[in-house]
Amino acid sequence: MSRKRVIVGTATASAALVAVSLVVTGSPASATIAQPSMRAMNAQAMPFGSVLRSQQEVGGVPVFGGQTVQIRDKAGTVLATHGRTAKKTAGAFPASDAGAADAAIADVAKRTGLAKDALKADAPRAYWYDATLGGAKGDGVAVPTYQVTVHGTKFQDKWTEVVKAGTADVLTSWSEVREANRDVCDANHKVVSGTTDSVRCGTAFDVTRKEGGAESSVADVNNVYTFFGQASDFYSKYVNVDLTGLIGADYSDGTGKALRGTVRICVDGECPFANAFWDGEQMAFGEGVTTDDITGHELTHGVTQHTSGLSGGQADSINEGLSDVFGKFIGITSNDPNDTGDNRWLLGAGSSLGAIRNMKDPRSSLSPQPDMVNGPGWQTNNPDEHINDGVVNKADYLITDGDTFNNQTVRGLGLDKSVQVWWGVENTLTPSATFKDVGEALNSSCAALAKAGTAGITDDDCTQVANAVKATQLDQDPS
């Protein structure tokens, strides 16, 4: 599958961004925070060492979104610090939170049309709130607020309201139910220009099916809607990622941030379009190119855009390989019939294209690819980003299911453990990674997971991962 290469690496910040002060000085109307007050929240083991997250507090009350994250090596040396903290405050907390719950319920009722007596509120929680910490424009002043969680009668009816202390003003709110918000549009064979604007679901095309909406008469619309949901479920369950929050797009069309896809597109000279792609904002599909694993593949390009940002040279093929890996994981865990039995490791089975890659046997006649670095079919110059990704696919098959290959015997770890190892790889590669970097990341990811006991991963599991790395020659520099 292809994608427009709009790659954005993970945001970084220098140590200079680390926390400004926290003790309030000056007048209550506009107080500058003066002295540091950061509370350590947690330290998380990572393949490279650890990350230490700290929370900003003013007068013992946390600043919402005011956090710093220190990236540390195995010796505990700080390599970089990320995050933002509030620099000023305005106002003060009243003696009580009276009225905050009523204001929150009133706002939910107004926005949703639900009756006030059908809503209930949890106890208000005090936070300083500075909208600029979330990306809003402005001077950056934290004000005293209460966060109130409001529940309706249905499971999905759950919102957090941010009420300005001492008033009935709701500054912002969000849903606490982490379901996918899905918008799917039908191009109905219209030829698109190839620009991002030309395929936008919600602007270039009307939304055919939105979250919670009725089924469409177009099979591709319903299939993509379902597959978006299954991909979201996978990322939430296995790696605790809100896929919509990470890669969703808001086109100001009234549906908010959503996973978006446009189906049945045509391009000049090709109708139906025999491919699918992630364009840096959303997905687009030719007619019938809508399987669980293909959809998961393209969505994972969006995930990679926000993690390692792989781009160019060998990294392009690695990007394709990781999308194959997680696309196939999504299909298998969703019990999609196109990802079971003999189709377990065939990518695209059931689509209008038919199976396009064999992850178990990349050198098969489907679309011949190398299955080891510097092996038959390997092309170091990488003229086609889909060629060398067969090495990543073979490594995934070996780590997950196990086999004997290239004089190495690998006992498969099973899917649950394999997902965690590959997720570590996804988050530790750099934008210009090589295939040897993939081998190193596989080993270090497994070692860190074994040290932490994540998913029951053991040292012997890491021996199997190392065997898979050797079998696919991911421990070699490409010739």
From TrEMBL:
Its needed co-factors are: Zn(2+)
Source organism's superkingdom?
Bacteria
**Annotated ranges, domain Peptidase M4:** 227-305
Q: What is its EC number?
A: 3.4.24.-
Q: Which InterPro entries match?
A: Peptidase_M4 (IPR023612), Peptidase_M4/M1_CTD_sf (IPR027268), Peptidase_M4_C_domain (IPR001570), Peptidase_M4_domain (IPR013856), Zinc_Metalloprotease_M4 (IPR050728)
Q: Where is the Peptidase M4 C-terminal domain?
A: 314-451
Identify the SUPFAM superfamilies for this entry. Metalloproteases ('zincins'), catalytic domain (SSF55486)
Protein location: Secreted
Span of the secretion signal?
1-31
The answer on whether this UniProt entry bears the keyword Protease reads: yes
Enzyme class name: hydrolase
Instruction: List the keywords (alphabetical).
Output: Hydrolase, Metal-binding, Metalloprotease, Protease, Secreted, Signal, Zinc
**Could you confirm whether the keyword Signal appears in this record?**
yes
- According to its UniProt record, where is this protein mainly located? secreted
Q: Main role?
A: Extracellular zinc metalloprotease.
Protein family (similarity comment): Belongs to the peptidase M4 family.
Protein name according to UniProt: Neutral metalloproteinase
